Automatic annotation (TrEMBL):
It is found in: Endoplasmic reticulum membrane. This is Hedgehog acyltransferase. It comes from Podarcis lilfordi (Lilford's wall lizard). Belongs to the membrane-bound acyltransferase family. HHAT subfamily. Its main location: endoplasmic reticulum. One of its GO terms (molecular function) is palmitoyltransferase activity.
Length: 453
């Protein structure tokens, strides 16, 4: 008999919510106090930025990713996204049949504007190579080709050549990040092309690959959309009125601005990255501050990606496409599996569709499931750069997911279920003995909240 699980009582949920908020705010207060105490020392070591955005509070400049994308966003990318929206809306009104091709040409032009002729040529080279490999309709060869392209991004000699194309490191890193994300798009198209039946996608497959790869809202940093989803949605778009799209744009922009303000306030009031980069200060702070630093790090990462994924998600929606769900708050997650499933939904969909399920997935025996999970995490580590700390991170995540799946399989065994039900009955009898309440093991409530995987 399956376990009967239900939600906790409202009063108990409210109590836990109150306690959780209390822990959050008190630990953040400790980080704020430490930031004020060590502000001058951190300024000398890391050169805190001064602006007037938050009443003169200095800004922690140590999160490279946030600073990088904010600089490019304000400088060029936001304006190019406005241009994309203009082309998209005009083509929807007057020439909807040709909309994918207008957006493809615009994406190529935007790529040339930011990455130059050499950057555009490299992406074209990768596209052509991937398309050529896909013609063999062999998924194994497609993966070999994709991994080969990914490996070229780590070749020192090629890195130096690419650096020579640009006047700044920032421009080189924009090309590097773009090529890294594009690699998933080549792979998605190639594998879908291998799987498609001969009657499907017979019209201009190379042009569709270009339209997919050069779709600008997700061009530099994602989120990840599979070719299957992109192709189907582009061919079955729902036309929305200009008035509706304007309302979507205003509401979405206000939400993104609030997320941006929250992220900026965190790095103005709490120098979380600077303190974590200074071993001497980490040793000096209290345990409450250490806990607050860890919590603030992961929550800042969450809010950061609400902004970085929220902007392209808004453009996708105005284009009539469905974006992957935005990240779920990490403070509400309680499992490794849930973190992977709910944080970067687009990447999770890619990994499950193209690696986890083809390698066996959870439908097979435990050994195949462990192998599929290991291969998935190995690819994620290699895709992110293949550094030693990433392999350690992958192993820890793999162990966490393996342990969770092992426990799930264990508690699904009939003998274990019977033991749990007997234990529940005894606990309930002890709790209700003084009140004289009789209980039945089949109807005993279980005070455990539950979500389906």
């Amino acid at each position: 008999m399956p376990l009967q699980l239900g939600l906790l009582p409202a009063w108990e949920l409210s109590l836990y919510l109150f306690v959780s908020f209390g822990f959050h705010f008190y630990s953040f207060y400790e980080v704020f106090q430490a930031s004020r105490e060590y502000e001058e020392e951190l300024d000398r070591e890391f050169e805190l930025e001064t602006d007037s955005l938050f009443g003169g509070f200095r800004k922690d400049p140590m999160d490279f990713e946030w600073n990088f994308w904010m600089e490019w966003g304000k400088g060029s990318i936001l304006w190019l996204l406005f241009g994309h929206l203009t082309v998209s809306q005009l083509s929807s009104l007057y020439m909807e049949k040709y909309k994918p091709w207008f957006l493809m040409v615009y994406g190529m032009a935007a790529c040339w504007f930011l990455l130059g002729t050499n950057g555009l040529a490299v992406i074209f080279l990768h596209v052509t190579f991937s398309y050529g490999v896909a013609q063999f309709k062999n998924p194994f060869l497609m993966w070999l080709g994709s991994l080969l392209l990914l490996s070229t991004l780590r070749v020192s000699a090629l890195e130096e050549i690419k650096r020579g194309w640009y006047a700044s490191e920032s421009e080189y890193y924009l090309l590097l990040f773009t090529l890294t994300v594009r690699c998933l798009y080549y792979t998605s198209f190639g594998l879908e092309y291998c799987w498609y039946r001969s009657a499907e996608m017979t019209h201009h497959p190379f042009l569709w690959m270009l339209a997919y790869v050069f779709y600008y809202p997700v061009f530099h940093n994602g989120p990840i959309i599979t070719f299957d989803g992109f192709y189907k949605q582009m061919n079955k778009q729902e036309t929305c009125s200009l008035k509706f799209n304007l309302w979507v744009f205003i509401r979405g922009s206000v939400r993104i601005l609030l997320w941006w303000w929250l992220a900026e306030s965190m790095i103005h009031f709490m120098y979380i990255h600077a303190i974590c980069s200074s071993p001497s200060h980490l040793e000096a702070v209290t345990y409450w501050t250490l806990g607050g630093l860890a919590l603030a790090q992961v929550l800042f990462f969450y809010v950061k990606y609400l902004v970085l994924f929220g902007v392209p998600a808004l453009v996708l929606r105005m284009d009539g496409l469905k974006s992957p769900d935005l990240p779920r708050c990490v403070s509400t997650m309680y499992s490794f599996s849930g973190m992977w499933r709910s944080f970067d939904v687009g990447l999770h969909t890619f990994l499950v569709r193209y690696i986890y399920i083809p390698m066996g997935g959870s439908r097979c025996n435990i050994l195949k499931m462990l192998f599929s999970t290991a291969i998935t995490f190995a690819f994620v580590s290699y895709w992110h750069g293949g550094y030693s700390y990433l392999w350690s991170w992958a192993i820890l995540n793999w162990l966490g997911v393996a342990a969770e799946n092992g426990v799930k399989r264990l508690v699904s065994l009939p003998a274990v279920l019977d033991l749990i039900l007997v234990a529940k009955k005894k606990i309930w009898q002890v709790m209700t003995k003084e009140e004289g309440i009789s209980c039945n093991a089949d109807t005993v409530p279980c005070c455990t909240s539950h979500r389906n995987p």
